[in-house]
Write a structure and sequence with these properties.
heterodimer; A: mainly alpha; Rna Polymerase Sigma Factor, Chain: A; Arc Repressor Mutant, subunit A; 2 domains; 9 helices; globular; B: alpha+beta; Immunoglobulin-like; 3 domains; 4-stranded antiparallel β-sheet; 8 strands; flat
């Protein structure tokens, strides 16, 4: 199920050449960027907002934001796919929070959307075998562990908000989050915070 | 806190669920260019990105691609995802349009070009306003006024957000000579001014300038504006017309 989606976001070795073309304001490069990552971005945003029309508006906003900010990404070492996905996710969570009038104490999602953080990431991360392994690893997690990761990533809930949503003590939620991340890393064969 | 104490929190930071004080500490390390934290957070962001890619696959509408290209003032080009009947339909439409235009006048082309320019301008404007709104609405945004006590002042405010950038809103700006432009500067407390973009005022003397990006607010003394040559300068070459001193913030 996951493979076609991953293949749809073809990102080859010329991913970084694409950044250069975007920085030179080549509109066709934006079309290619959409062809590579549009479906994954849309799938992610739809998973968050659960409304097709709103998801399309947010994906459009995401690509426009990338177009406007593309000069901030390193053309030599930047990974535009992961960066785009972070912007898409942040836009969707922002929408979710504003529509639910949910505010969190001084949390600014944009801090994980800075282009400088997307240097030296694997350029074809989204089509690598890692993506399928994460999917498989997520499915192997105990339901409560998978739930906390999904609530954090796809619904933008803080650990306190998860505690209320799941009716569990905050300490339990923190333990579940850490264990879930640890299990995910173990499953992927990566040491925690290696 | 040192990097060793923060490493267990990189994953939480990447998921936007790190708590205080670790979240601010990691942000400070990143703003300082800490290589250890930068590498750790990048690894965690890879995992977070991959979690995002596990969303159930969904197919956007055929129009979305065209909408995105139109939003940057670019018409749809031949899409590799267009079905074969789409090609036939498109070719037929193209022939009809070609015949129509061959018989028509150049005014349609000119009108289309004008509209395209307008769309491009408006898109850029919307992009700028979106950035400005994000800065103005950020919970960690601080503001500073300038020009309040001068007799003939440019007056206004600057808004500075550590993770989103700077917005300057000014009025009473004198018109610059034809070969000059305004340049904004971020003035660190103990380093050279950092260029923060060029802008022009409108005919009524008002201006809004947005400079997206991160700002190390505790290390920043002021935001300033000088008049420079059209191409801008690496360092100020004239006396600042605007200096907005930032309030002291705890590091």
């Amino acid at each position: 199920m996951m493979l076609p989606l991953m293949l749809a976001v073809y990102a080859g070795s010329d991913e970084r050449a694409l950044i250069g073309r975007l920085q030179r304001r080549d509109p066709q490069a934006l079309a290619e960027l959409y062809d590579r990552h549009g479906r994954v971005a849309y799938s992610l945003v739809l998973r968050v907002v659960r409304d097709k029309a709103i998801a399309e508006d947010l994906v459009q906003e995401t690509f426009l934001r990338v177009w406007n900010r593309v000069r901030s990404i390193d053309p030599e070492k930047g990974a535009i796919g992961p960066w785009l996905l972070a912007i898409a996710r942040n836009s969707a969570i922002d929408y979710l929070r504003s529509s639910a009038r949910r505010e969190r104490n001084a949390v600014e999602l944009d801090e994980t959307g800075h282009a400088s953080l997307y240097r030296e990431l694997e350029a074809d991360l989204l089509i690598s075998d890692q993506a399928r392994r994460v999917k498989a690893a997520m499915e192997k997690l105990a339901p409560n562990y998978r739930t906390v990761l999904e609530l954090a990533y796809f619904e933008g809930l803080s650990q306190s908000e998860m505690s209320v949503r799941m009716g569990q003590p905050l300490g339990t939620i923190k333990t579940w989050v850490r264990t879930a991340l640890q299990s995910l890393r173990d499953e992927l064969g990566v040491a925690v915070s290696s | 806190m040192n990097c060793d104490q923060l490493r267990d929190h990189y994953d939480l930071f990447a998921l936007d669920i790190a708590e205080q004080p670790e979240r601010d500490e990691i942000r400070d390390h990143l703003n300082r260019g800490c290589d250890v934290c930068m590498a750790g957070v990048r690894r965690s962001l890879e995992t977070a990105t991959l979690i995002g890619a596990t969303a159930p696959p969904a197919q956007p509408s055929f129009q979305l691609r065209r909408r995105i290209l139109a939003s940057i003032g670019e018409g749809e080009r031949w899409s590799r995802s267009m079905p074969s009947w789409g090609w036939a339909l498109a070719m037929t439409a193209l022939i009809v349009v070609a015949v129509y235009f061959a018989a028509g006048s150049r005014q349609y082309t000119q009108a289309a070009a004008r509209l395209r320019d307008q769309v491009r301008d408006q898109t850029a404007q919307i992009g700028r306003l979106t950035e400005a709104f994000a800065i103005l609405s950020g919970p960690r945004t601080i503001e500073a006024s300038f020009g309040g006590t001068q007799p003939q002042p440019p007056q206004g405010k600057v808004f500075v957000n550590p993770s989103r950038g700077v917005v300057l809103i000014a009025s009473n700006l004198p018109r610059t000579p034809a070969d000059k432009t305004y340049e904004m500067w971020i003035i660190p407390k103990a380093a050279k001014p950092v260029p923060a973009g060029l802008f022009q005022s409108r005919d009524d003397g008002n201006a809004m300038h947005v400079q997206p990006g991160t700002v190390d607010v505790p290390s920043t003394a002021a935001i300033a504006v000088t008049v420079e040559n059209q191409a801008g300068a690496d360092q100020p070459t004239t006396q600042p017309l605007i200096v907005a001193s930032l309030p002291a913030t705890p590091r």
